Amino acid sequence: MAKTSDFKPLPLIMVAPNGARRTKADHAALPMTISETVEAARASFEAGARGMHAHVRNSSGEHVLDAGLYRELLTEMKAAVPDMLVQITSEGIGKYGPDEQRKLVHDLLPDAVSIAVREMIPDNKTAEAATFYAWALKEQIAIQHIVYSAEDLTRFFDLVEAGTIPGRDHQLLFVLGRYANNQESAPEDLEPFLQTLTERRNTLGIDWAVCAFGHQETDCLAYAIESGGKARVGLENGLWNRNGTPARDNADRVKDLVAALKEKNLAEFSQDRA
Fold this sequence. Notes:
TIM Barrel; single chain; 8-stranded parallel barrel; globular; two-stranded antiparallel ribbon
């Protein structure tokens, strides 16, 4: 697929409408098909999200790393929501390994992709990953590096210093609550990431965002933005609004976050930093 844009900063709010594991049994409005995903993206864009973190599912509803399905999604998104950044996922969920993840990115040449450091480099063998990251940088593919803990973040900085992950400007996603009890996150879970970021970033340009699991998703994301970061919000991670009621759909989750930003007098960021 031909490149459509140069490397750009992360949008302030990115919607994550479905993820790899949840189905309509978890929430009736969780999109499973490409058409449902595009509609969720369109409604979320109108609500204030300027990017989408995208998963595709096969005909059985299973998460797949399928370049053909992603091409279809990207084509539909360009027609329906042309101003929305689409970031594909390379998430393995124990089904796909680094070779398959790299192949997807090579085949698709997306503008943006998220890659978990611990999935792409699960051990001390770094040569293939280093070649891949250097190629992606040359192709101007924006990689958001996913880290699940402060230890993951420390390892990311070690890999940058070693040259395995090249470049001076990087996108990061801090995941809150993935391995907490009942996958429930809290705003204070961000603190170890921020401490490590302060200690290790040096002169690197770091564009970071947060996703958070559970009932406090909105509070976690508002705190992240208040702390200088950005947010990924949606039914992939949280099914509830701040008042404890189930969200109607992904756009409702975006609206809940925008409302929280307005209450914190951060409403201007929802436009200026989007």
